[in-house]
Amino acid sequence: xxxxxxxxxxxxxxxxxxxxxxxxxxxxxxxxxxxxxxxxxxxxxxxxxxxxxxxxxxxxxxxxxxxxxxxxxxxxxxxxxxxxxxxxxxxxxxxxxxxxxxxxxxxxxxxxxxxxxxxxxxxxxxxxxxxxxxxxxxxxxxxxxxxxxxxxxxxxxxxxxxxxxxxxxxxxxxxxxxxxxxxxxxxxxxxxxxxxxxxxxxxxxxxxxxxxxxxxxxxxxxxxxxxxxxxxxxxxxxxxxxxxxxxxxxxxxxxxxxxxxxxxxxxxxxxxxxxxxxxxxxxxxxxxxxxxxxxxxxxxxxxxxxxxxxxxxxxxxxxxxxxxxxxxxxxxxxxxxxxxxxxxxxxxxxxxxxxxxxxxxxxxxxxxxxxxxxxxxxxxxxxxxxxxxxxxxxxxxxxxxxxxxxxxxxxxxxxxxxxxxxxxxxxxxxxxxxxxxxxxxxxx
Length: 444
Ligand code: GBH
What we know:
Elements: E1 9-13, H1 16-19, H2 32-37, H3 55-69, E2 73-77, H4 80-83, H5 92-107, E3 111-117, H6 123-127, H7 136-151, E4 157-162, H8 164-172, H9 184-208, E5 215-220, E6 224-226, H10 231-254, H11 259-265, H12 279-283, E7 289-293, E8 298-302, E9 310-312, H13 328-341, E10 347-352, H14 369-387, E11 392-398, E12 417-420, E13 425-428, H15 430-441
Parallel strand pairs: 1-2, 1-11, 2-3, 3-4, 4-5, 5-7, 6-8, 7-10, 10-11
Antiparallel strand pairs: 8-9, 12-13
Helix pairs in contact: 3-5, 7-9, 8-9, 13-14, 14-15
The structure holds ligand GBH.
Ligand GBH is lined by residues 15, 18, 162-163, 166, 220, 222, 293, 295-296, 298, 312, 324, 351, 398, 405, 414.
C-alpha cells in the first residue's frame, strides 16, 4: 500500500479555451483558436470552443464537482483575450470572471493554481505578427502584470506558460494547432519568445512587483526511446528528444539551447539572431517549482523522408484512445532523468490523464476502467518516486471535464467527469469516484 503525506497536493486541471465557451461574452474578442477552429479542415468535425462546456456560465456547478472530488487544488488558465480584448485595452469585466472563480474556490478551501498562457493568444496580437514578433514578449508582460496585480491575493501558485513546445512546434511547424503554420524558422523564433516571456514574467513578478507566491513553468515531456539498437534509430531518438524535451529544458535550466539541435535546425533556420544578449540568462531566471505534464513515452525511429530525420515507430504497448503508449515505468525514468540532469526544484505533475471511449449508461454511470487504471498506475508511480526522494509535491488529473480536445474537437474525452454536450449535463465517471477515494484516504 502506498500513502501520501497530508501536504501532498491532489488536484485536477482544465484550460480556458477548452471549457469556457461564451466566446463573445464579457467583452472577449477572438483568440487564434477561434480563428483556427473555424477554418475548415483544421478541427475534427468542424468543432469549436464557442460553447465548449459552457463553464463560463456553469462554473459554480463545476466547483461543486471539484468539491465532491475533495481535491486540494484546481488548475485553470486565464483567457488573454478576456483581459486584453484589443491592444492596450484592459477589460475589468473579463478579470471579474476569474476573481469570482478564484474567490469561490478559496471559500471552498480549494487552492487556485493559475496558468497565464494555455495557447489562446488574442487575434489582435496574432495580426501584429503573433509570437513570431519579439514585441509579443511585451504584450504578454502587460497581460501578466494585470493578472498578477488583480489576482495574486486569490491565487496560490502561478504558471507562466503551459507546454511551449505545443504552442511553438505544433502551432508553427507541424501546423496541427493554431495558428497552423508549417515553418521551422518561425517555430524556433516562437519558442524563443515564449521562453523569454516566461523569464521576464518571473522577473516582473518577483523583482518588480515583489510578489511571493510560487511561480514556475510547465513543460510537456515524453521520455524518448529508440525503436532498435541501430545507430540510426539512436540518432533519431536523440534528435526527437532534442526537438520535444531538451529544446525547452536546456534554456530553462542551463541557460542555453542544445548545440546538436542548433546544428540540426541550422539547415532550415536562416539565423539565430533572434537570440539577443542577456536573453538566455533571463529565460533561466530561477523559478519556485517545475511543472511537468506527462502523458506517454515516445518510441522513435530513423526516417530518411522526414526533414528532422525521425518518425514515430510502432510499439506493442497498451494504448490510450489517442493511440499513446501507457507507460508509467517510463514516467518514473523521466523524473529520475530530470532530477539527475536538470533540476532540484520541487516538481508538480500539472497534467496527467487519458482519453478513452466512454459509454454513458442508462443509470448515469460511466465505467471507465481503463482511465481508472491509467490514473492509479501514475499516482502509484509518484508514491514510489517520492520514496526515492524525488520531491514531487502535487498531481493534477487532466481533466476535470470532457472538453474541446484541440484538433480532435469533442471526439476525445479526457474528463473524469462525463459531459453530455447536448444538454451540458455532467456525470462523475467511475474514475472520478475512485480519485475522490484516493484523495480522501491519501493512499492506494
Ligand atoms: C496537453 O497536451 C494539453 O496541455 C491539454 O490542453 C490537452 O487537452 C491534453 O494534454 C490532452 O491532449 O508520443 O511523441 O507523439 C498534450 C501534449 C504532446 C502529449 C505530444 C502527447 C505526444 C508525443 N502532448 N505528446 S509523441
